[in-house]
Amino acid sequence: MGTSPNGLNINDGVGSTHPEALSAFVKEKGADIGLAFDGDGDRLIAVDEKGDIVDGDQIMYICARYLKDEGRLKDDTVVSTVMSNLGFYKALEKQGIKSIQTAVGDRYVVEAMKKDGYNVGGEHDR
Fold first, then answer.
1. With left for phi above 0 and alpha for psi between -120 and 50, is residue 86 left, alpha or beta?
2. What CATH superfamily classification does 1-54 receive?
3. Could you read off the pLDDT of 5-35 as tens digits, one per residue?
4. Integer Cα distance of 114 and 51 in angstroms
């Protein structure tokens, strides 16, 4: 789906700006997960097998927990914005994962990640 961009139709009815199309596609195909990006690839929307959107905080948590379990989460730390849910921070803390909060905007998250070399970060964004 959405695999034939011609320079004019990028994310035309698909991609992260149209998660309803991804949701319908995942349910129709019986897929386990669906992933959609925006035109420049800096925004991800995921849906589960039921076509429900997976929250950005949930995606960061899943990635952070996996990498921590593998011993690959830099300083056991995640970078997110102040818009992340309190439950997200409590869940991280329960797993022994620290969090750094930035102002809203991916540039602030990236800046904090680059500063100390953190490998998981993102925005809530939904």
1. alpha
2. Alpha-D-Glucose-1,6-Bisphosphate, subunit A, domain 3 (3.40.120.10)
3. 788 887 788 888 889 999 999 999 999 999 9
4. 34
